[in-house]
Amino acid sequence: MSRISLSRFLIEEQRQHGALPPDLRLLIETVARACKAIAHSVNKGALAGVLGDAGTGNVQGEAQKKLDVIANDILLEANEWGGNLGAMASEEMELPHSIPDHMPRGRYLLMFDPLDGSSNIDVNISVGTIFSVLEAPEGNAQPTEQDFLQPGSRQVAAGYAVYGPQNMLVLTFGQGVYGFTLDRELGSWVLTNPRMQVPETTKEFAINMSNLRHWEAPVRRYIDEMLAGSEGPLGKDYNMRWVASMVAEVHRILVRGGVFMYPKDARDPSKPGKLRLMYEGNPMAFIVEQAGGVATNGHQRILDIQPAGLHERVAVFLGSKEEVERVTSYHQG
């Protein structure tokens, strides 16, 4: 049986199901090529002199790694000239990036976290790229920040690349979730994980336990019950994982189930969470839901949240349906 490349897969989806407009297909292929270039830089590491701090900060005041800046530039440059985009927004930039005046513009808006988990770069642990695609409002030749502020339910595509022992691209455009592995010799993404599904039940959770003292009561209750194991109210023993890279955590959940949590905490009560709604919460919630999982902020479905700002933060509980619904019910009840 012949192997199915990303390009062939997208063309067949466009041709057979009519679910993928041609300009969206071209946009996804462009992002996928950019992710290949980022993977090359990540895999080179110290050999290319790309490890370490860049000596700059992003819009959130966080120190940037050299690869944060490189990955951001790769995505901007790859997507400027294709004619599919009206504008782009990045976790690393305060304001949207307009398509240059001499370039053709398209009807889509692209948002991305160019290198998620960048604190892991220097210690050779998996990192990744997350992206989200929205449609720009009709008749707006120059999209503004306000045009990006759409609920996640209006995403037309989302995906991530994880750069690890294998480089993988995971993609949804609202018709299921598909995983592609980068064939390094041929330089092409090959379909290896069709119709990825999150198991409804799990015995595995991911959370940064060092923050326990800062969490709200519903989260502490849920964690206490899991730690009580088979003798506790949940009646089963759980394992904990924590990679500190959302891409790696979500990928594990898509492959074998689990629940990932990054809750609100008391260190900064003015912020509803740590992760960014537009660049992390929404695209990952879209992917997890399309794979049969659930994603909430503890109180409501993440994809229903109306964003108020480009860099808005959100609490995140996502993964296997049974566990996410349980911790959400603790918040609600």
UniProtKB/TrEMBL annotation:
Alphabetized, the UniProt keywords read: Carbohydrate metabolism, Cytoplasm, Hydrolase, Magnesium, Metal-binding
Picking any one GO molecular function of the record gives: fructose 1,6-bisphosphate 1-phosphatase activity
Q: Is the Glycosyltransferase keyword given for this protein?
A: no
**Which SUPFAM superfamilies does the record associate with it?**
Carbohydrate phosphatase (SSF56655)
**Which positions bind Mg(2+) 1?**
91, 113, 115
Locate the Fructose-1-6-bisphosphatase class I N-terminal domain: which residues?
A: 5-193
Enzyme Commission code: 3.1.3.11
Subcellular localization is given as:
Cytoplasm
Provide the reaction this enzyme catalyses. Answer: beta-D-fructose 1,6-bisphosphate + H2O = beta-D-fructose 6-phosphate + phosphate
Q: How cofactor binds (record note)? A: Binds 2 magnesium ions per subunit.
Main EC class the enzyme belongs to: hydrolase
Annotated binding of Mg(2+) 2, by residue: 113, 116, 280
Q: Which InterPro entries match?
A: FBPase_C_dom, FBPase_class-1, FBPase_N, FBPtase
Fructose-1-6-bisphosphatase class 1 C-terminal domain sequence ranges: 198-331
UniProt-annotated binding residues for substrate: 116-119, 208, 274
Please give the superkingdom of this protein's source: Bacteria
Pathway field? Carbohydrate biosynthesis
Cofactor(s) annotated in UniProt: Mg(2+)
Keyword presence, Zinc: no
Q: Which family does it belong to?
A: Belongs to the FBPase class 1 family.
Q: Which HAMAP family match?
A: FBPase_class1 (MF_01855)
Q: What assembly does the database describe for this protein?
A: Homotetramer.
Q: What is this protein called?
A: Fructose-1,6-bisphosphatase class 1
Q: Per the UniProt entry, what species is this protein from, by scientific name?
A: Vogesella facilis
Question: What does the record give as the organism's lineage?
Answer: Bacteria, Pseudomonadati, Pseudomonadota, Betaproteobacteria, Neisseriales
